Amino acid sequence: KGLLKMKGICILGSTGSIGVNTLDVVARHPDLYRVVALTANNNLDRLYEQCLRFHPPYVVLRGEPQAEELRARLSAAGLPRIQVLSGAKSLEDVAVLPEVDCVMAAIVGAAGLLPTLAAARAGKTVFLANKEALVMSGQLFMAEIAKSGAKLLPIDSEHNAIFQCMPADYKAGQSASGVRRILLTASGGPFLRTALDELDDVTPDQAVAHPNWVMGRKISVDSATMMNKGLEVIEACLLFNMPPERVQVVVHRQSVIHSLVEYVDGTLLAQMGSPDMRIPIAHALAWPKRFESGAEPLDLFAVRQLDFEAPNEARFPCLSLAYEAVRAAGTMPAVLNAANEVAVASFLDLKIRFTHIPEIIRHCMTTIAPEPADTIEAVLEADRIARLAAESYVNRLAER
Ligand code: NAD
Ligand code: MG
């Protein structure tokens, strides 16, 4: 073990749900992983605690006043050598440091795109949780991975499950030989059985109360609308080089099977486990080996039964919108993602109703034409235009 080179890790979004779970796994393997950089939007207290525990040489906060405060606290604590940086550009800088071997992309939303892309370009091993970054940049991101030869390991539990069910020598982005379909499981979220006419009045607190997983607020709302599954369909098409008609969503209430791969001979391979993100995180961090994650093993006798059903498109229009976006191609997935980010934030801010979320996204997708997504500038421009369109639609809804 002593002969293995210790790996340096940069965790983009270390204070979030995925970030905290990643540090929990890293702390179990101090002989294999060394924390080089941690970044946060504005959770200064949690980032400070992480500094005391992991002594990263670099940390990044979004705003300079907060960075200034963290510097003061760290010097008072006797840790003045931790470099505290601020701003979006610093996220890219720490992601490509020479002492960084791998980057956990765990920022939520479009804010994670540029640092994740920078890590891919620099040939770092990318642990990808930030699905919005991949949905936006699509083939562009996959091309950067291929060009630099970077390793790409999915963290999203479904995609990690699919990766584990792929042939042993499989690399993300390739087309897998012998695979007929991907079956992407979905819990159905908190509103799977809610009467359709009650959805107009559900609150943010009801929407973020996920039955099986504890996650950040944005992805929890996405799970309630099933846009999370929609983004994951697009993510699966890109990661596994599959057309959308070969990615089937399967509602599976227990969240025990995390997804399946169907082979041409009729074999179905599934990956199962407790709903604990430390399992896919540990899988990616140890790959191609295995190590402990801290998760409880699944008790099949307690699970007893596994249920499956087809998704109801009338209940979950966001799922169909995602299929439409991936078929429209070009910058349309970036438009879908940006409109969704604005709509979800507006719902969490109590500006719009839950059922307005798909309405806003549909409005943006019908009024904005897709452009070729062949440069990062084109992707960022589509993101910008869609946000403007979504915001003005939100304002119109608020005035009603
Ligand atoms: P979260 O809200 O708990 O954490 C988000 C992190 O990103 C925080 O550290 C925050 O400080 C940082 N951040 C937010 N906005 C930022 C900005 N503008 N600039 C810089 N940093 C910013 O979210 P999460 O649940 O951990 O999810 C993170 C990503 O992982 C999302 O893309 C989500 O879809 C994906 N994911 C999460 C889970 C899960 O179980 N939580 C599962 C699968 C995929
Ligand atoms: Mg998922």
TrEMBL record:
Pathway: Isoprenoid biosynthesis; isopentenyl diphosphate biosynthesis via DXP pathway; isopentenyl diphosphate from 1-deoxy-D-xylulose 5-phosphate: step 1/6. It catalyses: 2-C-methyl-D-erythritol 4-phosphate + NADP(+) = 1-deoxy-D-xylulose 5-phosphate + NADPH + H(+). It is an enzyme of class 1 (oxidoreductase). It comes from Methylocaldum szegediense. InterPro entries: DXP_reductoisomerase, DXP_reductoisomerase_C, DXP_reductoisomerase_N, DXPR_C, DXPR_C_sf, NAD(P)-bd_dom_sf. This is 1-deoxy-D-xylulose 5-phosphate reductoisomerase. Its EC number is 1.1.1.267. Pfam families: DXP_redisom_C (PF08436), DXP_reductoisom (PF02670), DXPR_C (PF13288). Residues 272-387 form the DXP reductoisomerase C-terminal domain. Mn(2+) binds at D156, E158, E232.
